[in-house]
User: Which sequence fits this backbone?
């Protein structure tokens, strides 16, 4: 069902059977697979190309306000591109038009236990190509833990409360990630003026070999009680998507480090 179109000396590949797939892009299970170009004059065996991590990205922004009791409220917006947009739009297709927003609302309320999600809006859920957009208001108690004169909260809001990806000490079967991807998160958190940052150290940048990279950084406003946090994560570069069981220890070590960065805690103290 795939189509190869020759452009100059190169081929471009299309899969018209998948409605949300951008032109010139194959689905994740087709990429990297051997294929035969059935050209009667010049048939050839090729490996189907894989899209780079930056093509399949999630871009998230959270504008939040932290209260003295540790609760948080604000607005969240997200955009999904490439394979991630295809996956999200296909999932939405499985729901009726009237239940999509409600289904997505329940999904995020389950992701953030105790959170209240309101005013959820979807953008371009049926657009054949282009990103899927999503926005909602959120309010959540106990985002920060209050102990006496201090509050503690995880800097990476979108990963807050996540469990480690790999928990087993050993593995019998290979690990295969679907496709390369990237994540770009920005969190602007306004905290009470009666508090000041007690621990503002951030993990910074971590290289993940040729497979990817991770950074978690922050800056603090000089004029208002606001901290801006930036997180960038790239995974699956250079074909780093398949790992044999013998390499599980190294893969688990990397993802345990990613989890420790994702759950890095900042501290506020009363002035």
Assistant:
């Amino acid at each position: 069902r795939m189509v190869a179109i020759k452009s100059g000396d190169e081929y471009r590949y299309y899969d018209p059977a998948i409605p949300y797939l951008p032109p010139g892009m194959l689905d994740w299970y087709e990429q990297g697979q051997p294929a035969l170009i059935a050209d009667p004059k010049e048939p050839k065996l090729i490996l189907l190309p894989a899209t780079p991590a930056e093509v399949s990205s999630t871009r998230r922004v959270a504008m939040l306000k932290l209260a003295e009791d540790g609760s948080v409220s604000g607005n969240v917006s997200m955009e999904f591109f490439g394979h991630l947009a295809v996956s999200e739009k296909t999932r939405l297709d499985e729901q009726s038009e009237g239940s999509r927003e409600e289904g997505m609302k329940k999904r995020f309320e389950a992701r953030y236990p105790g959170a209240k999600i309101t005013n959820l809006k979807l953008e371009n859920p049926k657009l054949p190509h282009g990103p899927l957009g999503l926005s909602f208001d959120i309010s959540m108690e106990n985002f920060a833990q209050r102990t006496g004169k201090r509050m503690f909260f995880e800097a990476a809001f979108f990963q807050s409360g996540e469990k480690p990806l790999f928990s087993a000490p050993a593995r019998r079967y290979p690990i295969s990630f679907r496709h390369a991807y990237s994540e770009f998160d920005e969190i602007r958190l306004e905290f009470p003026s009666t508090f000041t940052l007690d621990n503002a150290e951030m993990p910074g940048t971590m290289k993940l070999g040729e497979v990817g990279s991770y950074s978690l950084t922050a800056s603090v406003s000089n004029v208002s009680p606001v901290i801006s946090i930036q997180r960038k994560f790239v995974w699956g570069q250079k074909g780093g998507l398949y790992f044999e069981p013998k390499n599980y220890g190294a893969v688990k070590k990397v993802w345990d480090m990613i989890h420790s960065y994702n759950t890095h805690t900042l501290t506020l103290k009363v002035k």
Observations:
- Residues 69 and 146 are 7 Å apart (CA to CA).
- Helices lie at 82-93, 100-111, 248-262.
- The chain has a mean pLDDT of 93.
- The radius of gyration is 22 Å.
